[in-house]
Amino acid sequence: MNLDTISSQDIILTGDRTTGQLHLGHYVGSLRNRVILQDRCAQFLLLADAQALTDNMGNYLKVRDNVLQVALDYLAVGIDPAKSTIFIQSLVPELTELASYYLNLVTVSRLERNPTIKDEIKQRGYERDIPAGFLTYPAAQAADITAFKATLVPVGDDQIPMIEQTNEIVRRFNASVDQPVLVEAKAVVPEVGSRLPGIDGKAKMSKSLGNTITLSASPDDIRQAVKMMYTDPNHLRVDEPGQVEGNVVFTYLDAFHPDQALVAELKAHYQRGGLGDTVIKKHLEDCLQDMLAPIRARREHYAQDPAAVLDMLKAGTRRARDVAARTLAEVKAAMGLNYY
Amino acid sequence: MNLDTISSQDIILTGDRTTGQLHLGHYVGSLRNRVILQDRCAQFLLLADAQALTDNMGNYLKVRDNVLQVALDYLAVGIDPAKSTIFIQSLVPELTELASYYLNLVTVSRLERNPTIKDEIKQRGYERDIPAGFLTYPAAQAADITAFKATLVPVGDDQIPMIEQTNEIVRRFNASVDQPVLVEAKAVVPEVGSRLPGIDGKAKMSKSLGNTITLSASPDDIRQAVKMMYTDPNHLRVDEPGQVEGNVVFTYLDAFHPDQALVAELKAHYQRGGLGDTVIKKHLEDCLQDMLAPIRARREHYAQDPAAVLDMLKAGTRRARDVAARTLAEVKAAMGLNYY
Fold first, then answer.
1. CA distance A335 to chain B (A)
2. How large is the ipTM?
3. Using CB atoms, which residue from A60, A105, A109 is nearest to B57?
4. Domain residue limits at B162
5. What tens digit of pLDDT does each residue of A241-252 get?
6. Are B18 and B70 in contact (CB under 8 A)?
7. Which of A12, A119, A264, B68 is the most buried (most CB within 10 A)?
8. pLDDT tens, A130-185?
C-alpha cells in the first residue's frame, strides 16, 4: 500500500474477524499501517463478530470473547480510539438492514462465482452445505464498506473480488434509484513482502496452524518461537553458505529490524558462509523482544480495566452507528421507504 | 382454519406483500378471519414491503405506495388497529438482524430444496439468476415469525414448507445456545373453499391476470366483473340444465351470499334447467354490492386522511418494534452478543 496516495478526504474501512488474538502477521500486513493512517484520514475499524459467526455459529463464545482481545491488540499497537473509530459490528444493526437490501441486487450464481467465496468454500470443505450466511457475506461486506462511504479498503489480493462485488452492488443500487447515493471503494493491496510467513515457513501465519507469534506473546513465547523458526534446512554447517530466500528468520529481520543495513550485512555473511542460525536468531529475538515489550506492556495496562475498553468501544460504536444511520436513511429515502 | 382451536394465549403473525390493493380472494382467504381473530388472541399484521422488494427492486415505488393502500384495505374490512398490531416491515430493523443470524443456520442447498422457493423460482423464470434476497427469504420469514414468538401462521398449503423451514431454524438456534429462546409456530391452513378463483375461472385471483375484484372496486367495476364472470360455457339455453361445479358465480355465491338456503335452491334450479346466468349473476351482483358498499365507504373515509393512517401505522410499528427488540435482545444475549 502506497501511503503517500492517501488523501485527507479518504475514508478507510477495515477491521478483523474476532476469532482469535492478533499476531505479527496482522501487525505487518495492516496494524502498523493503521497507526500511520489514523493521522491522515478518517478510519473505521470493524470488530467483525457478526461476520465471524457466519462460520462459527457453533463457537459463538469464542467470537464474543475475542472482541475484547482484538480491541486490546488495537490499543496495544497504538491505534488511538480518538483518531480511529473502533466499533462492534453486531451493535450496528444498520449494517444488516443495508445488507438485506443489497441481497436483492446480487444473484445467487454471481455469489457462487465470486472467486474469494469459491476459495473459502473449498478451504472450509463446505461442498454444498454452505451456510447461507457464508455465501451471502459479500452483501454484508458491501454494507460494511458502503455504510461509511469508504473510499479505500485495505485487503489482501485474495480479497479483491469482494471489493469488485461491493462496487457492482453500488452501481446497481445507484442505477436502480437513479441517484449517486452510494460510493465506490478502491481495494488497497499491501506491498509485496507485507504478508508474513508462519514461523514454520508456511505461507500463512495462522492460529490454527500453531505457527504464529501473537502480539501478547510473553518473552519466553518469543524465545521459543524464534528457536523453532524455519531457516535453511540445507545449512547444516556454520562455515558453509546458507540460503536467505525462504529463510523465515531473514524474512522477519526484513520486516522488523530497525537497522536494515545490518540486516543486509548479515544476509551477505550468511550467504558466503560462516554465520550460524544461532547468531541470526539472536538478532531477530532481540529485535522482536524490543518491539513487542512496549506493545505487551500497553496491552497488559489496558487489560487491567476491561470496563474502560468497553466504554471506548461503546463510544466508537455510537459514532459508527451515527454515520451508518445517515447512509441507511439516504438509501431508504431513495427507495421511497421513508413513510413518516 | 378451525377458528375454535385458537386460544387466547396464541400469537398470530400474518400479513401481505405490498404489491397491490387487496381483493376478494384476500378477503375470503384471510382478511375475514383476521377480523374475527383479533378478538380472540394477539395478532401481528405485517405490511411486507421489504419482502416485496426481494423481487420488485426495479419497482420500489409501487411497493412503497401500496403500504398505504393495503393499510386502507385492512381498515376498510374492519381490522381494528387497537386490537391488531399493524406494522411496516422495513421499519422494524430487528427483523433483518434476526434474519442475518438465521442465515448462518440454514445451508444454501437446504434453501434450494425448499419446495415453495423452488416453485416460485420456476414461476418467476429466474433459472440461476435468482436474487440472493429471494433465495434467502425463508430466513427473513423465520425472523418475521419468531420475532413475535408467533404460535400460529395462517398460510396457503403451498407455504407449509416455509413454516417447516422456520421451525428448523428455531430448533437449530435453540440447540446451538442450549436454551429455548425461540418458539416453534404452527401453520394454519384455511379450509377448502377459501381460495377464490378469478372471475375468469382461473384457479388464482391475481392482479397480474386482471381477474380480480378489488376491495375498493366501484359499483360499476363490480357490475362489469360479474357480467364477465365465467359460468358454464356449455349452458347455452336457459331451459337446459347448467353445471354448478367450476361455475364461478356459484363459487362466489357460496363464499359470500348471506342466505345459503337460497343459494342451495338456486343451484338445484340451475342444475335441473330453467335458470339463466342473468338471474344468478343478478343475485351475486346484489350480494357483492351490499357487501362491498360499507367496505368501500370505510376505505374512502380513511383515504381522506392518509396522515392519520400513517400515524396509526407508526403506533403499530412502535409496538411491533418493542416486541421484536425484546426477542432480539434474548437471541443476542444467548449468543453472548451483549457486550454492555
1. 6
2. 0.91
3. A105
4. 3-195+305-334
5. 999 999 999 999
6. yes
7. A12
8. 899 999 999 999 999 999 999 999 988 888 999 999 999 999 999 999 999 999 99
